[in-house]
Design a protein that fits this description.
flat; disordered C terminus
Length: about 200
């Protein structure tokens, strides 16, 4: 099957590195900021690997944290948790940071931003995974990411809890996440998408 093959609804009709969009198999990580997603809201369709709901539809967008580089600590009201939404070119303040799980009780911005090294690394790993040799040979691996991709995706999904976390926290995640790391990260990112 080719990337531009016609499809009905299900992305499983498409090759492993594409999803069904408006009746056409569309390559992952191919749509620019502002592209409207009217079917199968799949963040991996976007170059930014991020979607957000707007009044006029669901769009690919960058979500750039506007604070000082590397300083995600917040009291929940300062400007450090403002984000620039590139699809509509506005700056929005989103929900307060959450307490870390390392016992410090500090609060951090909930999202590292799609312009962060962490997010960019995760997007590249996903892109490499979907375009790699393993998926060309085995369709069943489509939703079974490699360990490195899973690990980075969880760091993205649980960013505030894992930022500056101690070994105890990391052991907690390892014990309870296990083989379901990819599932946890997808669910968390999906929750963010529907909340905002």
């Amino acid at each position: 099957m080719e990337v531009t093959k016609q499809c009905k609804v299900d992305s499983d009709e498409c090759v492993n590195n594409a999803a069904c969009l408006n009746g056409i198999c569309t390559a992952y990580f191919s749509l620019d900021d502002g592209a409207v997603i009217t079917q199968n809201p799949e963040p991996k369709l976007c170059k930014s690997n991020y979607l957000q709901k707007f009044e006029d539809g669901v769009k690919c967008t960058g979500f750039f944290w506007m604070g000082e580089v590397g300083n995600y600590e917040t009291n929940g009201t300062d400007l450090k948790c403002n984000y620039n939404v590139t699809a509509i070119n506005t700056t929005e303040a989103h929900n307060p940071g959450v307490c870390a799980l390392d016992g410090t009780a500090k609060q951090y911005c909930y999202h590292p931003g799609t312009n962060s090294d962490l997010w960019i690394s995760n997007t590249k790993q996903l892109n490499d995974w979907y375009n790699g040799g393993a998926l060309k040979q085995h369709t069943m691996r489509r939703r079974n990411w490699g360990p490195e991709v899973q690990s980075t995706s969880v760091k993205v999904a649980a960013f505030p809890q894992l930022l500056n976390a101690d070994k105890c926290t990391l052991k907690y995640y390892k014990a309870y996440a296990g083989a379901s790391l990819a599932t946890i990260s997808v669910a968390f990112l999906g929750l963010l998408f529907f909340l905002f």
